[in-house]
Amino acid sequence: MIAWSTVESAIHAWIVEGTGLDASQVIWANQDDQSPDGDYASITVTATPTGNGGWNIYEDNIGGGSGEELTETHYRMWELSVEVQLFGGSHRGTTSASARLTRCVGASRLTVRHESMRAAGWVPARFDPIQNASAPAGGSIFEPRAILTAYGYTSGSMSGTATYIEFVDATNEVADPDSTFTLDLINEVVT
Prior knowledge:
By secondary structure, the chain is an alpha+beta fold. It has helices spanning about 5-20, 95-105, 110-120, and strands spanning about 25-30, 40-50, 55-60, 70-85, 125, 130, 145-160, 175, 180. It has one domain: 2-Layer Sandwich (Alpha-Beta Plaits).
């Protein structure tokens, strides 16, 4: 099972390396805190389930009490989109927000970084074009800012306990307000 904190740490380390910012200047978006002073990057992660409903694996829960004889684990693939907004830097050149995010794309392909992200459970598979919001508009110059969105896949799982059905008592008639159905049941006792 993938530990979410490990994935977050790998994403954070990747953005720190790629942007060249201090780790304290790379934050998670929507925190109940002020943005750092100076240049900083803000990370947002969105998880979207992919494909069908996933798959289940059932295992005997040795030592489980009554009602907990089985462990059921549900697995599913998720697409994680990681959006990084970089605020600050110059409007152009190697210290611009868009140049720093371009280096993030390259850093994700460095062998050491790629392997550490793979070990954590998520690697960016594709990128949207970097959006450069630093350009002057109508004579106004806004704070230098650029946005990078990366997409990759990870698996997630959730586990719970279940039980074997030991005994079912059924009759051979099913009543419906409009009619009655008779079922042929095989009477078999399993011990």
